[in-house]
Amino acid sequence: MSFLRKLASTAVIVAFPSVAAQAAPMSAAEILGLFNGVTQGDFISSQEVEGRLYVGGNLTGGTLQVGFKDVPASPLDELIVEGNSNIGTINAQNGSDVTIGGAATGTIELNGGTQGTRTARIGGAFGGLANQGTVLSNQAVMDPNFADRFPDIDFSALKAEADFFATLTGTAFDTSDFNNKKIIGAPDDSGLSVHSASLADLSGGSYSIDLNSATTVLINVSGTTGSFGMNLLGGTFATAENVIWNFYEATSITVDTAIVGSILAPLADMSGFGGSTEGSVIARSINLSNGELHSRAFEGELPTAGNPTTPVPVPAALPLLLAGLGGLAILRQRRRSAA
Q1: Coil, strand or helix at 46
Q2: DSSP code of residue 12
Q3: How far is CA 165 from CA 214, 241, 282, in A?
Q4: Higher local confidence (pLDDT), 296 or 20
Q5: Which residues 6+ apart lie within 8 Å of 280 measured at CB?
Q6: φ, ψ for residue 192 (rounded to 5)?
Q7: Nearest CA to 92 among 73, 72, 71?
Q8: Where are the chain's structural domains?
Q9: Is residue 113 exposed (0-12), middle (13-18) or buried (19+ Cβ within 10 Å)?
Q10: Which residues pair with 92 in a beta bridge?
Q11: What is the spatial distance between Cα 187 and Cα 168, in angstroms, rounded to a whole number?
């Protein structure tokens, strides 16, 4: 984080100590329902993210197209970068807004639409080209509330959630037929269906997912390094909003084909994306070199460690909650490193 960002963040915390003390990081379910992509570290892009994107480190690469689809209502902008942006072009669609914590270079295109105000706010200097819309630089000094534009995302808490989900038991991923691997829902009273697999199980072949009346299919995937190379049978993405792949211990994942469902991989560097991902992604870092991240916000329910029989719904009412707590006040945070 830049020195200017630190000053802005400290000033806000001092000015509002009681509110800052009440702030809490968002859960995995909330994040997956609100964002299309989230990284603790850097995001490298040559493609598009249809929904809202949060980058905890720096944004680099050739081009990023963001905000094509209407995103869930929130005070948060459609693109939020904690660090610097040195990507060639940011193409913000549908009136989307942009916040960059550090400095920025390259071209920022703020295209027309009704989703936002077509404004890019940059914490430090802007050494690029502004095309359409409004670009405001040096906001970490100029705007006393600049630090409020960043959500409170705690990757250590997300790792704890991923570890807890991995303790839940269910049925194994049926891999008996390499070209017809099956996940068939077996929901409990809350609608949750838990399954287990290894990264090796996902490296090739074909698969299908049948919700079978489950509202959430949770797939706990063991293994530290590997690839996702399975092809989806039938080509349907109807289950995407109700599926979550929990890579609770993975540190490196290469994506060779389309993934149907959201991804929780708080320790993983993800790369390749040979096919488009139909869902949201939480990862340590992302290199989006080929496929796109399609906006299919998670709509399932996930249990909590304190009360595993009571699921926590995704944030359909999160915007109302935020408004009731003073909008952006609940989102303030102490800046965390993107290690």
Answers
A1: coil
A2: H
A3: 17, 18, 15
A4: 296
A5: 31, 32, 33, 35, 36, 37, 38, 51, 262, 263, 293, 295, 296, 297, 298
A6: -90, 130
A7: 71
A8: 3-26+72-152+316-331, 159-303
A9: middle
A10: 66, 110
A11: 13
Number of continuous H segments (helices) and E segments (strands) in the chain: 6, 28
- Cβ atoms of 293 and 299 within 8 Å: the answer is no
- Position of tokens 């399932």? 300
How is residue 156 written in tokens? 């250590």
Closest CA to 293 of 109, 67, 57, 42: 67
| Residue whose token pair is 């009273």 | 189
**Cα–Cα distance between 61 and 47 in angstroms, integer?**
9
What was the pLDDT predicted at 307?
58
Question: Is pLDDT of 235 > 70?
Answer: no
Residues 22 and 28: their CA atoms lie apart, in Å, by 19
Closest-CA residue to 217 (of 181, 180, 245)? 245
Mean pLDDT, residues 211-236 taken together: 93
User: What is the enclosing helix (H) or strand (E) of 269?
Assistant: strand 262-271
Tell me, what's the pLDDT at 220? 98
Residue type, 241: E
For tokens 């072949």, the residue is 205
Closest CA to 225 of 264, 253, 197: 253
Which residues are CB-contacts of 176 (< 8 A; sequence separation ≥ 6)? Answer: none
For residue 87, which phi and psi values (nearest 5 degrees)?
-75, 155
Tokens read off for 62: 């050739």
Q: In the structure, what pLDDT confidence band is assigned to residue 267 with cuts at 50, 70 and 90?
A: very high
The pLDDT-based confidence of 274 (bands split at 50, 70, 90) is: confident
Residue-level length of the chain: 339
| Lookup: tokens for 6 | 């630190």
The token duo for 195 is 């399954």
Report the alpha-carbon distance of residue 202 to residue 173 in Å, rounded. Answer: 10
Q: CA dihedral defined by 212, 161, 256, 69, rounded to 10 degrees?
A: 80
Question: In this structure, are residues 251 and 270 in contact, taking their beta carbons and an 8 Å threshold?
Answer: no
